[in-house]
Write a structure and sequence with these properties.
493 residues, mainly alpha, elongated, 31 helices, single chain
Length: 493
């Protein structure tokens, strides 16, 4: 999932501080890689009732003559039903890429569609908006660019009274925003951020979910850190987003997922995470983490992992901020509750979505990196063995598990005494036999910390046939020298 900088085992004059610095450098590279990962997608909103009514109707490929006929009929038909029917037929045809290309090449087609969108007849407006929505879902940039004349009207209609129409406009804008910089350039000065901020006060969950989608698309733009996110942070959006993520009976999964991703994109931009922290982002997300852990124990409903992923990422990234320490840095919750909840989620992800395990382990890494109390919670709750069970999942997971164990070991002799030997000894013998050099390197780093703080560990390790595993790797001679040096230090220190 993430690329890591590979580091080699260097035994010469390598103390705890150097180990810590090397690991922090690797983690900084990881955070940068994670910030650069984006989830750009498009949504297609179709009315279920219409889908059922039109079941069996195959979307036809229309030529210029047929498209022209539909547009003329929609404009000049004698009856409203006839005009609406022409737009329905056109909408079905626009589900085909070939018809889309023909449509945008036809002179005046978009202008006619915009005219119908701005008419004073609600049904025609709705069908024209549905036609534009089909075009917005196109994978062809020329089709998306052709919709540019309609965007200002779509923005205006966000202040309307029909929740269905507002929802459709939001999804259409979201599709266009992510695809076209020209659309974003036009909408930003026209006030898209204030318009979205007004929408977030809607009582309709469908509107809120659509708003979260449109906002997340806007926040993923390459120019977002400079031109978009400062405006978002200066609006009421962040406070409302955090309110919508508050655990409780009013929490809606679909809405929460969308706004958790919005929060993730804002945090990854690093524009002003201190502001989010002062507004209570850490405590809100921490409480949501506890709520998620309770929910996965109570229900088998699918979809909770969709919320777990952005929540874990948000917490992980916020904990790296200096401002997190100034407000407690401990999620303003008891350490044991957070650690226990995180392990419940790790077990849930192991069963439902193993590919998301690194997200939870990354959070555990950030929790334990600078906090002896979180490391103590890991030990007091007997969670080392469950953590070791994850070593068999994948190499990425193994590296993160070993990194967390390094965080615990570097806290000093008392922590190493709790770690060693226990099940850790046999697990390290196994990981040293891995073919992945990164897993082996992290295993050796953990051994080095254990030998430093627990001189007796080196002898115990050698007695347990550790050298048989180590002989497969070129680091064996270096490690032997290090073990010997550490033994001498222990004897004469």
């Amino acid at each position: 999932m993430w690329s890591r900088q590979r580091g080699r085992f260097k035994p010469l004059c390598c103390g705890v501080e150097e180990l810590r610095c090397r690991r922090r450098e690797r983690e900084a590279a990881l955070r940068k890689a994670r910030r650069e990962q984006q989830l750009v997608s498009k949504r297609l909103l179709r009315d279920e009732a219409l889908e059922e009514a039109e079941e069996g109707c195959v979307a036809m490929i229309f030529g210029e003559a047929e498209i022209q006929q539909f547009l003329q009929l929609a404009q000049r038909g004698t009856e409203e039903k006839e005009r609406e029917g022409a737009l329905v037929s056109l909408r079905r045809g626009l589900q085909r890429p070939e018809t889309q290309q023909t449509f945008i090449r036809l002179e005046g087609s978009i202008r006619t569609l915009v005219g119908l969108l701005t008419s004073n007849q609600a049904l025609l407006q709705l069908e024209a908006a549905r036609c534009l929505h089909e075009l917005s879902h196109s994978e062809q940039s020329a089709v998306v660019e052709a919709c540019l004349p309609a965007t200002s009207y779509l923005l205006t209609y966000l202040s309307g009274h029909s929740s269905d129409f507002i929802e459709l406009c939001l999804y259409t804008l979201g599709n266009l925003i992510v695809e076209s910089e020209a659309v974003r350039r036009q909408l930003l000065p026209q006030g898209i951020v204030p318009a979205l901020a007004a929408c977030i006060q809607s009582p309709h969950l469908t509107v809120l979910e659509a708003l979260g989608y449109a906002l997340s698309q806007l926040l993923q733009a390459k120019e977002a850190p400079e031109k978009i996110i400062p405006s978002v942070l200066g609006s009421t959006l962040p406070q409302h987003m955090l309110q919508l993520l508050q655990p409780g009976p009013k929490l809606n999964l679909g809405v929460a997922v969308e706004f958790a991703w919005c929060l993730h994109y804002i945090i990854c931009s690093q524009v002003n995470n201190a502001l989010l922290i002062t507004q209570g982002a850490l405590s809100t997300l921490g409480l949501l983490l506890l709520d998620l852990a309770g929910a996965v124990q109570r229900t088998e409903d699918a979809g909770l992992e969709l919320l777990a992923c952005p929540v874990l990422r948000c917490l992980s990234n916020l904990l790296t901020e200096a401002a997190a320490e100034s407000v407690g840095g401990q999620l303003q919750l008891r350490d044991e509750r957070v650690v226990a909840a995180l392990f419940i989620l790790l077990q849930f992800l192991l069963q439902k979505q193993p590919s998301l395990l690194p997200e939870g382990l990354w959070l555990l890494n950030n929790l334990t990196a600078n906090s002896p109390s979180f490391c103590t919670s890991l030990l007091s709750l007997d969670l080392i063995e469950p953590l070791l069970h994850l070593l068999s999942v994948s190499n990425v997971v193994s590296v993160l598990v070993l990194t967390v164990l390094c965080n615990v070991a570097e806290k000093g002799p008392a922590y190493c005494q709790r770690l060693w030997p226990g099940p850790l000894l046999s697990s390290l013998l196994d990981t040293l036999a891995f073919s992945d050099t990164e897993v082996v390197g992290q295993s050796l780093e953990l051994l080095q910390l254990l030998f430093l703080y627990q001189p007796g560990a080196a002898q115990a390790f050698l007695q347990q046939s550790g050298l048989q595993a180590l002989q497969r790797h070129e680091e064996v001679a270096q490690l032997q020298d290090r073990v010997h040096a550490l033994q001498q230090t222990a004897l004469h220190g």
